[in-house]
Design a protein that fits this description.
heterodimer; A: 425 residues; alpha+beta; Heat Shock Protein 90; 3 domains; five-stranded mixed β-sheet; 15 helices; B: 222 residues; alpha/beta; Rossmann fold; Arc Repressor Mutant, subunit A; 10 helices; 6 strands; 50% helix
Chain lengths: 425, 222
């Protein structure tokens, strides 16, 4: 990791003093000093209260809270760092599995980053504040010295003494002091740059994400992806149920009302009768469409009767004949069932659309606690998993459940899809 | 006039069905919203026929269907008409294989059918009389399949039409009317169907058996 302010100083040492860098460094150091001081006070107060109340019990909670005190400070510091550092630091913390204060505290206390941030907070409060005060003294003195002629002019006829016993009588006599002040400012520019750079370095070392944080994040990513799949599945079911309980029922009620109206009009010579009949037909068509839509979202028969029955229903609807032989001792986890079902759906669609096959066989069973499905067609082969989004999407979906999809499709056929999904996961 | 116990959790639909049934001269002794209430109502009212939805609270799975099968276990021969939103044959199979041992009508109708008031009432009557009625749409899906070594393959198109109408619960005369052929040729067709499907005439109601044979095949038991 580079430090931008140091780089700027190294590349163009002379122009550095006239660039915006010194001002940015000073702003960074000044704000850091104030913040460090406040943080130090707060932290000391927390500790004191915590220790003082530890006999009561609540004090222990406060002490725990002071252990994670570095977390918000570090978050603030990562933002404040942007004053002098264009490269943003990655937040080393993982996202949280649950909400609420207690799970948050538990997770954070387990993370090493939390303790690094606490160390940084202490350094900020003690070292940065101390050096910052020293630097402010230098900067302040330089500014005052540089401004002596103005001060002398402003407070006349009172006199100003830079060196004890030698009063300065007029602004012109104060010019040497002014020169010293300007030199001090020049020194402050470089010293500020160096000091700010050093603080950036320390922040980079303690506040950024390390490999160890990232590797735990990969595991978390995998988990969150699996959670996402579950969430999608739950959402599908919710939509299916909403449609079923809402729109479908309403449409059925509508057809029924129309049917009753027809019944009332029977025998009467009314022009409304054919209109009502038409409305009923249209409502029925809408129902039919809605039904196939709902089935595509999540078939109820999969929920109620499991994978073999659901695939058998699929086979009934498929334009080319499908033989199904799926033998399972028990129901599978619902995520596995859903993935397997949609894989078969997609495979059958592909076979019917692209393969030129006139027969498809779906064979499935449980081997070593792993669902193995073979979908074979007698078509002309040549299916390329890399070419179509469909097969790739299937492979992705299966991979989320730590399963795999193997496609063998030599030119001339046959095409076979082998799906393996572990059921214990 | 039939005394009906109705189980349907969608309020709108339940009210509509009650209205439809009472307007057409039937008596709804109880209209309930879940499977438990259904069982209680049947125990109390001993209706002529039960109409139930498949999916009902609390699980919103096949509680209604299961409750109907249980009731048929308790009251053999109790006619049950199941209304369903699903064309899935697994449900029809579940119903028929659970209830075919006992006497008494069974029906599996899609809810859409309720709109065809006359057809719906006709189906209800036939179920109450002990016949089996399966929704034409379900039958159509079953007959659509074209598996290679399928006994069904051996049926001629006309024979399939006859089978489909039989599945709907029509008798020979009604089938003849629908297809505008003579009753004698319906008899001829149906004996061909029974022969091709290798159904034993001694096994009771062959019409139901013919339909069952197809519903059961391919669809694994639940």
């Amino acid at each position: 990791m580079t430090v931008a302010v140091w780089e700027a100083m190294r590349r163009r040492p002379l122009r550095f003093a006239l660039s915006a860098w010194p001002l940015r460094s000073w702003a960074f150091l000044l704000s850091g000093t104030v913040l460090g001081f406040v943080v130090l006070l707060l932290f000391a107060a927390l500790l004191l209260v915590g220790v003082g109340l530890s006999v009561v019990g609540i004090g222990l909670v406060i002490l725990m809270a002071s252990a994670v005190f570095g977390v918000p400070v570090a978050a603030l510091e990562r933002r404040r760092l942007r004053l002098v550092e264009p490269d943003h630091l990655l937040d080393p913390h993982g996202s949280l599995p649950g909400t609420g204060a207690l799970p948050w505290l538990r997770t954070r206390l387990r993370e090493r980053a939390t303790w690094r941030e606490l160390a940084y907070t202490l350094i900020l409060g003690v070292v940065f504040t101390a050096t910052g005060i020293g630097f402010i003294a230098l900067l302040g003195l330089s500014v005052i010295l540089a401004a002596t002629p103005v001060i002398v002019w402003a407070i006349a006829p009172d006199t100003v003494m830079l060196v004890p016993g030698q009063p300065i009588s007029d602004p012109v006599a104060a010019l040497p002091g002014s020169a010293t002040g300007l030199f001090g400012l020049l020194v402050s520019a470089y010293a500020g740059g160096l000091l700010a750079g050093a603080q950036v370095r320390i922040a980079q070392f303690l506040l950024s994400a390390r490999d160890e944080d990232l590797s735990s994040r990969v595991i978390e990513l995998t988990r969150s992806r699996a959670r996402l799949v579950d969430a999608f599945e739950a959402e599908r079911r919710r939509i299916e149920r909403d449609l079923h309980d809402g729109a479908q029922q309403q449409l059925v009620a509508l057809t029924m009302t129309l049917g009753l109206a027809e019944l009332e009009l029977r025998g009467q010579d009314s022009t409304a009768a054919p209109l009502i009949a038409r409305a009923r037909t249209e409502a029925r068509q809408a129902l039919g469409q809605l039904r196939s839509l709902v089935r595509g979202i999540h078939p109820q028969v999969l929920t109620d009767h499991g994978l073999p029955a659901a695939v058998a229903e699929l086979a009934l609807r498929n334009p080319i004949p499908v033989t199904v032989d799926i033998d399972l001792p028990d129901r599978l986890p619902s995520a596995v069932e859903a993935t397997a079902y949609f894989t078969v759906t997609e495979a059958l669609t592909n076979a019917s659309k692209h393969s030129g096959a006139d027969e498809v066989a779906v064979v499935g069973g449980l081997t070593d606690d792993k669902l193995v499905l073979l979908i074979t067609d007698n078509g002309h082969g040549g299916a390329d998993p890399a070419a179509g989004a469909g097969l790739q999407g299937l492979a992705d979906r299966v991979a989320i459940l730590k399963g795999r999809l193997i496609v063998t499709s030599p030119v001339g056929g046959p095409t076979q899809l082998r799906v393996e999904v572990p059921c214990s996961a | 006039m039939l005394r009906v116990v109705l189980a349907e959790d969608a309020v709108l639909l339940r009210a509509g069905l009650v209205e439809l049934l009472s307007r057409t001269g039937h008596e709804v002794t109880a209209a309930v919203g879940d499977a438990e209430e259904l069982a209680r109502a049947v125990d109390a009212d001993r209706p002529d026929v039960v109409i139930t939805d498949v999916r009902m609270p609390p699980g919103f799975r096949d509680e209604g269907l299961k409750a109907a099968l249980e009731l048929r276990g308790r009251y053999p021969g109790l006619p049950v008409l199941v209304l369903s939103q699903y064309v899935a044959t697994a449900y029809a199979t579940q119903l028929l294989s659970g209830g075919s041992s006992a006497e008494g009508g069974l029906g599996y109708l899609l809810k859409d059918r309720v709109g065809e008031v006359a057809d719906f009432l006709d189906a209800l009557d036939r179920v109450a009389c002990g016949q089996t009625v399966i929704d034409p749409e379900v039958v159509r899906v079953l007959l659509q399949q074209r598996t290679a070594d399928e006994p069904l393959q051996r049926l001629t198109p006309r024979e399939r039409e006859v089978l489909a109408l039989m599945a709907e619960g029509l008798n020979n005369q009604a089938v003849a009317q629908r297809l505008t052929i003579t009753e004698a040729s319906v008899v001829k067709h149906s004996s061909n169907i029974f022969m091709k499907l290798e159904l034993d005439p001694a096994e009771g109601n062959r019409r139901v058996l013919a339909v069952l044979a197809h519903l059961r095949r391919e669809t694994p038991p639940s």
